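Thread: "does anyone have the structure for this chain?"

Original post by V.I.:
We have the sequence but no experimental structure in hand. Need at least a predicted one for the grant figures.
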Amino acid sequence: MEREVYFEKVAWSYMPCHWKGFAVMGAIILPTIGAIILAQTLLNNFGYGNAEWLPFVMFLTPALLRLLGVSKGDS
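Reply from O.Q.:
Generated one for you, tokens below.
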């Protein structure tokens, strides 16, 4: 049985070529965006408005690495 291909390599990146590829991207990206917005709101409410870069480092970087691993088929 062959594996289904959800992502194709285009130049140095991977692009979804199947609806399941878009679904995987959405399942990783949408909760990440929600977490970033929630974290920025909480930081602002607690008086740490100048630390708005922190949620990007905490949530976006691991999400991008996870998505790259999924698209390459490593996981």
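V.I.: this helps a lot. The two ends are 18 Å apart (CA to CA).
O.Q.: and The first strand starts at residue 7 and ends at 10.
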